[in-house]
Amino acid sequence: MLIPLKKLKSWWLNQPRVRQILWLLSMIGWLTLLFLASRPFGLATYSLSSQADNYFIHKLEPIERWATSNGNLIMTGQPAYFFLRPTRPFSQAEITVTWQQRDQATYLETGILMDKANWQYQIQPLNQPVLNKLDWPVLTSGSYHLWQKQPVYSTWEQFLATPPDSTKLAVYNWSPNLSSFSQPENYQIRQTWQDISGQWRGVQQIITYLAADEPLAWRLIITSDTLKNLTADERRIEVNITDSANQRLWSEQRLLENNRLDWSILAGPWSAGAYRLEIKASSKLLINLSTKQSLFSWQGQVWPVAPADYLWQFWTDATQITAQTIQPASRQKIIINQQSLDIEETYQQYQINTKTTSTTISLLAGDIQLAGNGLFSLRPTIFNPQLRRVSQLSDIQLANFDFIAADYQPPICDQQFCSATAKLSLIGANWQPGDGYKIMLAAGNSQLSTTSPLIIKEIKLKLSGQTLWQFFRSLPRRLINKLR
Amino acid sequence: MKTSYWSKINQINCLIYPWLTTIIAVLLLSEIIWSGFVRAYLNLAFWLIFWAASVILKLILLDE
Q1: What DSSP character marks residue A182?
Q2: Is ipTM > 0.85 here?
Q3: Which of A464, A364, A483 is nearest to A94 (CA)?
Q4: For residues A168 and A152, what is the distance between their CA atoms, to the nearest angstrom?
Q5: CA A28 to CA A433: how far, in whole Å?
């Protein structure tokens, strides 16, 4: 070891002064690169204010939704996407978007792709114009806000301790712990399996009730109806069970073998209450469902599939329903509360506002995706242990509620620009090799067009994660976990 | 006059060539090991052009 050091020293002394300076400069440069790439303090900030080349925030897409007349960030359609490519892993991203104020209301949300196979995003609001303008008395606790038509609560804690009647409370971007949910009347534990008719496509978010000693019991038969070979991601099925506080209690993944998977899910029992069974499966797969549970409903969407003559009937409490099909043979007129909704084109979303929380939907055969801001049920009595979630509030919706609780930070605006920040967790987010995390900017109902675009002044991402010291301290644990 | 001009360039090129070659090798190796390490902050193509110019000069001047 001493000899190379001696050799190195004599080599260094023999170098001309200019070369010594060059070596020193390059060493400083390399160490600077090492510092910038490793971010030893666990913090990094990247920003983008034009479409010019940027390594960290790049690949703005789809190109037809970004104006190309100049290099500025101008969204002419939505949703738009970009990729975030940090040089090391981080656990949280704080995204700040600064945009020019528009004449039309701008609803703005951001999200990060969590599951590529099912296109699931973790979404956070940036701007909710109705809440910004709501003139009800408001209670604030950090990022939590409670708007009250008539002042009842004086603190957020008081509101949490004695929440109002769930029919009078709407929640926005907030999942409270629903410990107050009581057992349904005359509930009987079922001992036999019941087959749920038809088949189901896509992600299933099933909300079900379990009594104190009742285990969760579901049987899945999963097949594929695509003629193409499935990718590894498309063959993977993930099942998660979470409680009402969104804590994951059970999780398992399996792969489809020879185009079929038979899976009996038996979990629990846990304490009595409402639980969520999430089945993440590619839309190229069809799921047959059987269960022992008596009370259940689908949250957010249903995508039923059945033979041509089968008549489906659903009940929902969603006030806004969107229908879409990707199968030409499934185009039809569906009946929503005696109103006809003509699904004329494939890949086109058709929307209807029902203005009621009890809606009947009839359709033939299926392969139609129904989505809405509520629960869908095969029975007229919709099992809904949840508080009413709202996305885009209208005056009609506001009239139904006395309280609106939200985890939402309104934007800060001056005469020309508004700036809003949202926090996104990067843990478990989908990383696309070479490109990084996929981030979405959505401006639904904001009527973006080339004549009324959204002009973005800056997108700033503040990332935080483990420091270098924390990383080295976690190394032995990681190694042990890997060896196991 | 011409000889002293070329000899000056040769002298400078001899000085920076090994340094530049080592720098390019280190940067490329770092980028291969840690994707984005260099690309995020430096334009590697620019450094490669710089190095190529040095190589060409070296070959021409050696011929001289």
Answers
A1: P
A2: yes
A3: A464
A4: 13
A5: 30
Domain ranges of chain A: 43-128+410-464, 131-176+392-407, 306-382
Judge whether A444 and A103 are in contact, CB under 8 Å: no
B34 CB neighbours in chain A (<8 A) are: 37, 87
- What percent of chain A has a predicted confidence (pLDDT) above 90? 44
- Would you tell me which CATH number, out of the four given (3.30.70.3040, 3.90.320.10, 3.40.50.720, 2.60.120.260), belongs to the domain A43-128+410-464? 2.60.120.260
Instruction: To the nearest 10°, report the CA torsion of A209, A213, A216, A219.
Output: -120
User: pLDDT tens for residues A429-445?
Assistant: 999 999 999 999 998 77
Per-residue pLDDT of A82-95, as tens digits, reads 999 999 999 999 99
Nearest neighbour of A87 by CB, restricted to B23, B26, B40: B40
Tell me the mean pLDDT in the region B40-44. 90
Q: Which amino acid appears at position A431 of this protein?
A: W
Element (H, E) at A77: none
Q: Which chain B residues have a beta carbon less than 8 Å from that of A30?
A: 26-27, 30
Q: A181 pLDDT exceeds 60? A: no
Instruction: Return d(Cα A386, Cα B6) in angstroms, integer.
Output: 83
Closest-CA residue in chain A for B24? A26
The yes-or-no verdict on residue B63 having pLDDT over 80 is no
Burial label, A174 (beta-carbon count in 10 A; 0-12, 13-18, 19+): middle
Instruction: Of A375, A327, A53, give the one whose Cα is nearest residue A208.
Output: A375
Q: Supply φ then ψ for residue B48, to 5 degrees.
A: -70, -40
Regarding the domain delimited by A306-382, which CATH topology (the fold level of the hierarchy) does it fall under?
Jelly Rolls (2.60.120)
